[in-house]
Design a protein that fits this description.
Layout lengths: L7 E2 L13 E11 L12 E5 L1 H9 L2 E6 L2 E7 L3 H11 L1 E2 L5 E2 L3 E8 L4 H4 L11 E6 L4 E3 L2 E3 L11 E5 L2 E5 L6 E5 L5 E3 L9 E4 L8 E7 L6 E8 L13 E5 L6 E8 L29 E7 L3 E9 L6 E8 L5 E3 L4 E2 L5 E7 L3 E2 L9 E7 L5 E6 L22 E7 L1
Parallel strand pairs: 1-4, 2-21, 9-20, 11-21, 12-19, 22-30
Antiparallel strand pairs: 2-5, 3-8, 4-5, 6-7, 8-20, 9-12, 10-11, 13-17, 14-15, 14-18, 16-17, 18-19, 22-26, 22-27, 23-28, 24-26, 25-26, 28-29
Length: about 425
């Protein structure tokens, strides 16, 4: 098979014969999610797409992307590693004390394939992915069980959300703002470009004597899609920390199903940087020749833990329930003092779990229901259900109560 420039593999494995053209794995990313118990936590819900800038960089150095069921892998022609090393050295930026910094990276958009992903994932239920997206980077990666986890903690959580912006961003500025700048993940000013005019600041008001405020318009178009920080500064060039500023945002390509932007730096950016990288550091003099590590990364998500709420309903007219009890390991259930009226006119006895329980592709919780039912004729029947139904993946209902913030799963049982 001949490797084509900018070739993106969509599932098949390939390894052309020949020394310099042999494809070696640079790194791989597997999406894990504790909801997917039947596939050993491997998650099929996200599809990968490199950003345009990354497609260009991959094509320039004989890299290829292989889309996989639970993630993706990046390969590079073995003979191009020396060219990539020369490129990284040429693109290095001077840091404090003259030390070089290496911020070149591949950036990927992770797109949802499962509309129920937010419901099953321990993320804020109010998430609107057209307004906020997740961000992950191997600068935050750490080792766990022999794998590099792409999250500061054990899972990607709500702290990784950032506001999403498009090309044109209008800013209302706090008092004292004299300058607006945009910095990248290296902390370097990328807008306005060095040596160009500052971003204009305008004054607005609504009539004589009305309060006036400053505003600015930023064109993000010249920048590659990534994480940026919008900063407002005073007359002395110091950052003003007021309201949402400094404001870190994700500038991404508009996509209805985009969930996460992933930065994969190719090598350690600074000598003090934490993280896990696919290529060895380039700080030596001279640096050692590059070798692809094939580093396996994991993008980890946790299943949502919801408060299960059982509605026990008597079948048939004028049936009454008493002495109901739900038992089992893993949660305590408390019966509400009064039955509730359902929309169809039935009365239901409600039990609420006192601990949140994880949703699962293959739930293992076992709860029993016992009690008595009296029918209209006064006959008494014992209720014995040895295995109650468990919570479904959807829907998960939000709660106004802080205690149940992770959501409520409603389960209806007719006896």
């Amino acid at each position: 098979m001949t490797l084509q420039r900018n070739y993106l593999s969509t599932g098949m494995a390939f390894s052309p014969e020949g020394g310099d053209t042999l494809l070696v794995k640079l790194f791989s990313v597997t999406v894990r999610h504790t909801y997917y118990s039947l596939s050993r936590d491997c998650c099929p819900d996200l599809r990968i797409a490199p950003t345009p800038a990354s497609v260009e960089l991959m094509g320039n150095f004989g890299m290829a992307l292989r889309q996989e069921r639970f993630g993706f892998s990046i390969f590079i022609q073995q003979g191009r590693l020396k060219d990539l090393q020369a490129y990284l050295l040429a693109k290095a930026l001077p840091g404090p004390g003259g030390t070089l910094e290496f911020w070149e990276r591949l950036t990927f958009s992770m797109q949802l394939q499962n509309p129920a992903f937010i419901d099953i994932t321990q993320l804020p239920l109010s998430t609107k992915i057209n307004e906020r997206n997740l961000y992950a980077s191997n600068c935050q990666a750490h080792m766990g069980e022999g794998l590099a986890l792409l999250s500061p903690g054990p899972f990607v959580d709500g702290a990784a959300f950032y506001d999403v912006v498009g090309r044109d961003v209008t800013l209302r500025l706090p008092p004292g703002a004299q300058r607006v700048v945009v910095t990248d993940i290296a902390g370097r000013v990328v807008l306005p470009p060095p040596g160009t005019e500052p971003i204009p600041i305008f004054l607005a008001g609504s009539g004589a004597g009305a309060p006036q405020w400053n505003w600015a318009q930023i064109d993000m178009g010249p920048l590659p899609f990534d994480l940026y920080t919008l900063r407002v500064q005073d007359a002395h060039g110091a950052d003003i920390a007021a309201g949402k500023y400094p404001w870190s945002v994700l500038y991404i390509q508009p996509q209805a199903d985009a969930l996460l932007l992933l930065d994969m730096l190719l090598t350690q950016p600074t000598p003090d940087s934490a993280g896990v990288y696919p290529l060895p550091p380039l700080f030596g003099t001279p640096p050692a020749p590059l070798a692809a590590s094939g580093t396996p990364y994991v993008l980890p998500f946790d299943a949502r833990h919801t408060y299960w709420q059982y509605y026990i309903v008597s079948q048939g007219p004028r049936g009454t329930l008493r002495d109901l009890r739900i038992s089992g390991q893993g949660a305590d259930f408390v019966c509400q003092p009064e039955p509730v009226l359902l929309p169809n006119g039935d009365m239901a006895t409600v039990f609420m779990a006192q601990q949140p329980l994880p949703l699962s592709q293959h739930p293992t919780q076992v709860f029993q229901l016992t009690g008595q039912r009296s029918d209209a004729m006064g006959h008494e029947n014992a209720i014995r259900i040895s295995r109650l139904p468990v919570a479904a993946a959807t829907p998960v209902w939000p709660s106004l109560t802080q205690r149940f913030q992770s959501g409520i799963s409603e389960i209806y049982v007719y006896v």
